[in-house]
Amino acid sequence: MEEQLLQTHCGESGNMRVLLVLLLLWTLGLSSTPPPPQDVDILRLTQQSTWKSHPEKEYVILRMRLGAMGLVPVLQACASSARRTVLSEWTERGEAKHLYVDITFAQEQEPQPVPLQVHLLDHMFPSTHTSERWKVLELNVSQQFPPTTPTSELPSYFSPHMGLPLGVVRTAGFQLGLSFSGTCVLVSALRVFYRRCSHMVLDLSSFSAAAGGSTVRGSCVQGAVEVEGPLERTCSEGGVWGPQQGQCVCAAGHQPAADSCQACGIGFYRWANESGGCQKCPPHSQTLRLGSDWCECEEGFSRLPSDPHDLGCAQPPSAPVNLTVHHFDDSVLILTWDPPLDHGGRPEMSYHVQCETRGQYGTQSCEGVLYLMGADPTSVNLTGLDPYQDYRLSVQAQNDISKVQGAPSSSTASVIIHRWRAPPVVTVSATHTTREEARVTSQSLQQRGQYVSVSVGVLFGVLLLLVVISVSVCIRQRKLNTLRPEQYLGLSPINPGVSYRRTQDTEVTPDPAHQAESVMQLFERLGVGLAASLKDVLVERRQLTLGNQLGNGEFGAVYEAVFTRADGESMKVAVKTMRVGFHRQEELNEFLREAEIMKNFDHDNVVRLLGIKL
């Protein structure tokens, strides 16, 4: 019993599945195939029909009981065996082009079959006669009834002829004619009609109902557009739609939904001429209206004109991180960094390096500095630097969106490098000497100024310099003011880029050992003779206390100072410094060569060199 119930249940489930499949197929059929044709009646045989017989009264309409059909009007011609004709009333054809006829009739037995002739009179006005030229059909029955057949048995002898083509009508109206030359003919049903294509919505196209033989211009449903030429279909003579010319597709911003196109909602879009439905907007983009064909970028984000529509919007990257300066030697620094934490939503990345320093007219790009890319794109070697200068180094990260939006400050990281070698200081003292004491007076400084203009050729004879000048290059460490970016130099042939993060100050402070090493390296570059001559007059910086500025010399400023000897005795001196920017080797040699000349002066009225600080 349980097994039988299970089988019954399974059978019902199977039937239900079959029903669902059939229902699905029927639904798909409605939406994917043209509808069946429609028959439109123009003329029917009824009791009230007006038919004209020739000769008169040869055709009459009688009511006859035909089995289950009951009493029906029957057109009969049974009075003689001569040819007799009957014509319908003149009927307007309307939109009809091709006519069809359904006719049911019976014939009495004849020695030879006599056909029933059908005529179609296509003319503008009613006619009273017909002729052979209007004949379109000759019809016979399959079985004729005997002359003695009772009326009750006649229904079995009626033979139907359905959907017979009558032909084309071109004028405003027509008449239907029947001719018969036999003994007796009974016509129980007659219908003249044309076939019509039904209104149809298919493949996003709409076609209104049309008579067979017509060509119809269609239209696209709401939200769809025409492609591939004009939208047309031809309704065949039989009322069946022919192949479609042209095509309709959902417009941009719309998606197919049954036999219509539905607008995409907010936050969704559909690209023009693209198959499929609406898509969600890619990252950092949105739509502001229904039926959008693209998504606008959110504020602060952009896309390139060449980007595909399904690529999200992006922004410039953040600044590089871990910006670090490594000291290689006196003229070379290595700058390294790590990629930005935020790439801005794009895969490509490039970097630009900028070097700035203070020039004669303010901030300027570094001159004579070469940028050599390191082993990877996140490092660069800077050569040709001056160890006596301050620098600001900036690294800017860029992607392709940086070209569209510009370079925001948030994409740039900067570091300030202070000079990492102290400049040389030369201290000289020229004293007005008597046998008892040596001193420096303001009068001697004025006399020194007067004798500067005297020719070098008579230095040894008439040089009456009473100015004690100690020449020293003593440059304080100063930080660069905030610099404005002017030029960006790329690390690699990629694309430019982005903004300033908080500036990091890095000061390379030389230790005493490095200072001693630097002095020795400097002396080695001066040449053997000059180095040997000045080596015994080197003094420590702590022995000098600078005061007010007295004026400017050829190489730099002249300061009033106090010089403390090794034995602790202090004396007033003049200190001549080498100004910032005079860092070339030949300038330094010229500056120190002047000190060497002063060192060799030994006269009461001539300047005398007390010392040099490098």
Automatic annotation (TrEMBL):
Keyword Membrane appears in the UniProt entry: yes
- Start and end residues of each Fibronectin type-III domain: 319-420
What is its subcellular localisation? Membrane
Show the InterPro entries listed in the entry.
Ephrin_rcpt_TKs (IPR050449), FN3_dom (IPR003961), FN3_sf (IPR036116), Galactose-bd-like_sf (IPR008979), Growth_fac_rcpt_cys_sf (IPR009030), Ig-like_fold (IPR013783), Kinase-like_dom_sf (IPR011009), Prot_kinase_dom (IPR000719)
Under the heading CDD domains, the entry gives:
FN3
GO biological-process terms attached to the record: axon guidance
> What membrane topology does the UniProt entry give?
Single-pass type I membrane protein
Write one Pfam family the protein is assigned to.
Ephrin_CRD
Query: Which ranges carry the Protein kinase domain?
Result: 544-614
The entry marks the following residues as binding ATP, namely: K576
Q: What is its main location?
A: membrane
Q: Which UniProt keywords apply?
A: ATP-binding, Membrane, Nucleotide-binding, Receptor, Repeat, Signal, Transmembrane, Transmembrane helix
- The answer to keyword tRNA processing applying to this record is no
Q: Which domain of life is it from?
A: Eukaryota
Q: Which GO terms describe its cellular component?
A: dendrite; plasma membrane
Give the signal sequence positions: 1-31
TM spans (from-to) = 451-475
Q: Which GO terms describe its molecular function?
A: ATP binding; transmembrane-ephrin receptor activity
Q: Gene3D superfamilies from the xrefs?
A: ephrin a2 ectodomain, Galactose-binding domain-like, Immunoglobulins, Phosphorylase Kinase, domain 1, Tumor Necrosis Factor Receptor, subunit A, domain 2
- Name recorded for this polypeptide: Receptor protein-tyrosine kinase
